[in-house]
Amino acid sequence: MKHRRLYRRITKFTDVWDAQRLLVEHLNPIKDYEVVPVFQAFGRVVYEPVVSPADLPPHNASHMDGYAVNSSLLQNASPSNPVKLRTVGVCYAGKKPEFKVGAGETARILTGAYLPEGCDAVVPQESVTLEGEYVVFTSPATPYQYVDMKGFDVSAGQTLFERGRVLKMADVALAAALGFEKLKVVRRPRVGIVAVGDELTDDFSEAKRGKVLNTHSHVVARLVETAGGEPLFLGIVPDNRAAFLQLLENQIQRLDILLSIAGSSVSEKDVSSILASENKLYVHGLTLQPGRVGGFTFYGDKPFIFLPGLIMSTLNVFMFLAYPVLRKMLHQEPRYYHHRVKAVLAEDITFRKYHDFVKVVWVRVVEDDEGLRCYPVLGESSGMSIPSRSDGFIIAPPGTSALKAGEKLWVNYPPTL
């Protein structure tokens, strides 16, 4: 009697860096853009270089509250030789003075106000005394003291933001101050998120009766959103290849990327191999721990990334494959971290297996008098509390059996979880 093998197994693990490079090389940045109101551009990616249309400030302006003067009138001013100038008006921010300041005159000026014609300096209000309509000066003034010169901050024609920049709120405010009412930004990549498994549910009452709550989809959606993408929930599909293929055919046209959660392991039900025979570019199995059963393929020209079902594997494969894809599509360097810092490892870490893999350890970062220290948050790859207790992750390259306390390592931060 012949016995049929019920279980698949991964026979080849692809170097995770090679997999990342191969995936990214087959992608192009998004060519579409949107024009959005300037204050809605926060967090969006600049589509094309933004060039300043004007100087900032657009005129010589007072740096503080005081009196606008012609500095030549105060050359010989001193306590023993005070100079009295008559006040002829007040200069307010946002309104160009309609008067000129002549010989023997001064003008009250507020911070940010236009410097009136006939003046080249500002004397702080605490340095003068008042006598009716006259102001008494007892010290010299130098040309352009306490004056913000036209264009000192930004000059007309200056490039403000290069293509691919993620706009901070300070960037948005600067653009608005320079007169931009709208900005051109890259269209958000549309990322389909599908959870795979007969055991999953979105219903809390069913979860209380034994089903598994579909939490991972919400974690991945948050990562997609903070990475600049538009997450689209495609729901839960059972461990059924026909059902999964039907979902692919129905949804793929409106997506830029498809992420599946679970269904990438090696049981007879897993659906990750559904396109293996149809696509030469198929990777299943990575030299990444946790995350070794992750991978990717393409459905047409759309990347389809397999995120494993255990939470730490889900996060790691997202960071090493999906995140670089999102960055490439948004005209950014396709790296596997949002930002990173150097921190001293606080405790020894020993790796008992997968020595030839890239090992990922999530850590908590603490600042003390000596700088940043990182503490490993250890546990099984199914540990739901690990990401909650972590700030970022460190990696140990292939061939590493241990990391020693005292080593200074890069802590890689994800986009906000």
From TrEMBL:
Q: Which organism is it from?
A: Caldiarchaeum subterraneum
Look up the domain of life of the source. Archaea
Q: Which UniProt keywords apply?
A: Membrane, Molybdenum cofactor biosynthesis, Transferase, Transmembrane, Transmembrane helix
Query: Under which pathway is this protein filed?
Result: Cofactor biosynthesis; molybdopterin biosynthesis
GO cellular-component term (any): cytosol
Print the organism lineage: Archaea, Nitrososphaerota, Candidatus Caldarchaeales, Candidatus Caldarchaeaceae, Candidatus Caldarchaeum
Which chain positions lie within coiled-coil regions?
Answer: none
Give any single GO term for biological process. Answer: Mo-molybdopterin cofactor biosynthetic process
Q: Name one Pfam family in it.
A: MoeA_C
Annotated MoaB/Mog domain ranges read 192-328
Any one GO MF term held by the record is: molybdopterin molybdotransferase activity
Q: What is this protein called?
A: Molybdopterin molybdenumtransferase MoeA
Stretches that traverse the bilayer: 305-326
